[in-house]
Structure formats: structure tokens, C-alpha cells
Amino acid sequence: MQQSILKRNNINITGKGTQTILFAPGFGCDQNMWRLVVPAFEEKYRIVLFDYVGSGNSDYTAYNVERYSSLYGYSQDVLDICAFLELKKAIFIGHSVGSIIGLLASIQKPEYFERLIMVGPSPCYLNKPPHYMGGFEKQDIEELMELMEMNYIGWANYLSQVIMKNPDRPELSKELSDSFCSTDPIVARQFAAATFLSDHRADLPKSVVPSLIMQCAEDAIAPLTVGDYMHRHLPHSTLRLMKATGHCPHLSHPEETIGLIQGYLKHNLVVKE
User: 99, 198, 219, 250: which one is catalytic?
Assistant: First the structure.
């Protein structure tokens, strides 16, 4: 079982510290997306990197349609990793949907986590008027799903540009598009449905782990209204507005990303700000 978890999620461990930081990628991404951030923490922390089943160098044979039909399957994988590594009071840093996966894991087993750091999180991508605007109409998501089935490469190219922004740096959106294209299309479509059609707003008040919400500027995937909503409904949360544009500041603006994380970790008390 132990070796199977290592292989299943392609777990890699680095760093010289004792306290663990667990880095979780976003949709369609692998652990390599954290490469510009991780070195800043290796001296002080133990770093754990992993891939979701169906992404990166994970064990694709471990993919189970039923298990991964919702984010709970992915959060169970995180709990499996924590149990296997015997983690206690770890720092979980998640990008995008990885943040919500970490949140769900922390609700089930809060003893594994000391803090949650969420980069561009969203508990629900759909608009639910009049009280919640997630950024997308259901028709928008359905059209994206149709495009995935008809023209997967075209979908990857389109969505990567929407997510990344920073049009003056096309190499960033190309990297994201390449990452999407490296994922099995069937797996990617099911993960997309589990991500973009889910609604985990009701889970926010259940959290007991202090959290940092890192909200990017001009983020089409997780707009400012979502960051504000999460901050209001997530207990023990701190909201930080970033200068970084787009949805992937760990790639486009790693220095600012590192600075905000380091600043947050220096403080023991988390208050609504």
C-alpha cells in the first residue's frame, strides 16, 4: 500500500526542515508548476510534491471513474498521502481547485494541517444570483465541455490563455496548454466537470484551520467577488490582494507569491483583515 501511494501520486520529497509544506497543483497541472516557488522554502521546510491521478507522472492505471467523479476522491488522495507520511500540523499550499481539495481534506482530518494557503481559490465557479457570482454561467461551462470533446487541443489553447492572462508573455500560456495536452482527455474532462460544476460553498464554514486567500488581479477564473465571498464565509481566514494578474501567480509572479506566503507564515495569529 505504501509503495502504491508513492507511485500512484508520484510523491517527491525535498527540503531540510522538519515542518512539512504540501504543495498541491491546480486543474490540469502537475507538481512541476511549483518549481519557481519551492526553492524559497527548501532550507526551512520539508517539501512534499505530488501529482493527481491522471496528471503528470502519476500512475494512470490507478484512475477510477467513480472515485474521481468528485473532488472528494482527490481530497481522499491527499489524506492518504498525509497518513502515509504521518503528517501533523503541515502547511498545505494549493493552487485553484487544489485549494478546495485541501479544504475538504482539512475538514475531514484537521489534525493533519496547521494552515491552508489558497492561491486563486473558488468554492463555486458558477453564478448563483443574486447572492453569489462565481464568474461563469452554466452555459459557459457546458460550451467549454463540448469544446473539450470536439477539439481538445483547441480547448487547451483557448483556456490556457484565459487562465494565464499576461499576453506579453506567451510562453506562460503555452506551458499551461502543454500541461493540459499531456493529460488524458477523458481524465481531464471528468476532472473539469468535478471542478467547474461543483459547489462547495457550504463547506467553507466547516473549516477550523487558519487560511490565507491569495486573490489575483484580473483573474477570470476566480474574480475578486469570489475572494471576498470566501473571506466572509471561511473562518480564521486572511485575504491578500495581489498585484499579479491572471490565475497562476506562482508561474507569472513567483516573487510576489513567495513574499506573501513567507509573510503569512511569520505570523502565528490569523485575524479577519
Answer: 219
Order of strands, edge to edge, in the sheet holding 46-49? 12-15, 46-49, 20-24, 90-95, 113-119, 211-217, 237-245
Measured CA distances, 143 to 124, 149, 177 (Å): 17, 10, 18
Q: Identify the active-site residue in 58, 75, 96, 237.
A: 96
Active-site residue flag, 219:
yes
Which stretch of DSSP H or E encloses residue 138? helix 138-150
Read off the pLDDT of residues 87-118 as tens digits, 9 standing for 90 and up. Answer: 999 999 999 999 999 999 999 999 999 999 99
Domain ranges of the chain: 2-123+200-265
Whether the model pTM is above 0.85:
yes
The verdict on whether 247 is a catalytic residue reads yes
30 in catalytic set: no
Q: Which CATH class is domain 2-123+200-265?
A: alpha beta
Q: Which of 62-66, 90-94, 95-99, 268-272 has the lowest mean pLDDT?
A: 268-272
